[in-house]
Every structure is written in C-alpha cells, then in structure tokens.
Amino acid sequence: MLEAKPHGQLLTYDPSSNETSILLDGLGFANGVALSRDEDYLVVCETWKFRCLKHWLKGGSKGETEIFIKIFLFRSDVLEFVHNSNASKHLLALAAFPKLYKVINPAYRSAMVINVAADGNIIRKFEDPNGKVISFVTSAFEFEDHLYLGSLNSNFNGKLPLKIE
C-alpha cells in the first residue's frame, strides 16, 4: 500500500476443476469487484491509480480490459506526495505507520460512494466529507431503496435511504 506499486491481481476460480487462475495482473491495490447486470464484463477498482477497469468476459471484446472511469474525486495532494517521495515513504514506514497514515489519508476521515452508469458516467454521489456519520467506506450494497455501507473504521453498517418520502 505504501509503495503504490501495481502488484495486485484479480483471480478467477473454477469450482468444477478446483483451479484458480490470474484474470488480471499488475493492478494498483485492486479492490471492489462487480459484475455487470448481464455478466458480460466485470469492473475492478484500483485504489492507487484512482480508477476502475472494465474487463470483458463475453462477446467480441472478451479478454480485453479498458478504463471504465477515472476517479479524481479521491485524489489527495498529501497522498500524491507520499507516493512520489522515497523519503516520505521511509519516514512513514519507520514511524507508527498505521496511525500516521490514518492522519494523512482523507479516506479514513470521510466517506464517499459514487453511483456509476454502465457507460462510466457518474449518476450521483453520496458524501460525508467530515465522517460525522460514517468514514472509510469499503463496500456499498443497494437493497429495497436503501444503500447499505460497510466500513473498516466502524462497528456498524450504515443505512442510507435512497428515496425521500
């Protein structure tokens, strides 16, 4: 995570053969995998590249990968400096890294969830910039007109109504 190097992989598992293989390699801190409604492609996000990739599973583009969306909303000048400065990386590694990293990383102190259309356009954005309700959201699931939020910082799940009555 500190190096921000593309060491990540997306693996696929075939339960019939009990085999796991690499679907995508060289990802920058991969997370957040989602299948399209028709299961013809998947989207995987790369935290340190501030983007999500679309990997085609079916059709004429099967096996191809393209940028789905660049998410500049999460960029942080402090994190950019840390990733581009060897001295700052060493300082963070030697200091109480987890505690110091939480101080400089805005994701630990805020929350944001973006609803993205199949064409990669942002439909809407939900934000708690100061983390008053929830911070460091790591998962979101829409169910029965609510958005349920998971966080590594909280001992609860957030529930956000999507329709105002």
The helix/strand class is alpha+beta
Assembly annotation: single chain
Give the biggest beta sheet: 4 strands, antiparallel
N-to-C span: 42 Å
Tally of separate domains: 3
Query: Taking Cα atoms only, what radius of gyration do you get, to the nearest Å?
Result: 18 Å
Strand order of the largest sheet: 3-4-5-6
Gross morphology is globular
Number of strand elements:
11
Share in helix: 10-25%
Order of helices and strands: EEEEEEHHHEEEEE
Arithmetic mean of pLDDT = 82
The parts where pLDDT drops under 50 for at least 5 residues are none
Strand content: 35-45%
Q: Helical region count?
A: 3
Provide the descriptors you would attach to this structure in a database record.
alpha+beta, 3 domains, four-stranded antiparallel β-sheet, 6-blade_b-propeller_TolB-like
What's a quick, concise take on this entry?
The protein is built from three helices and eleven strands, in the order ββββββαααβββββ.
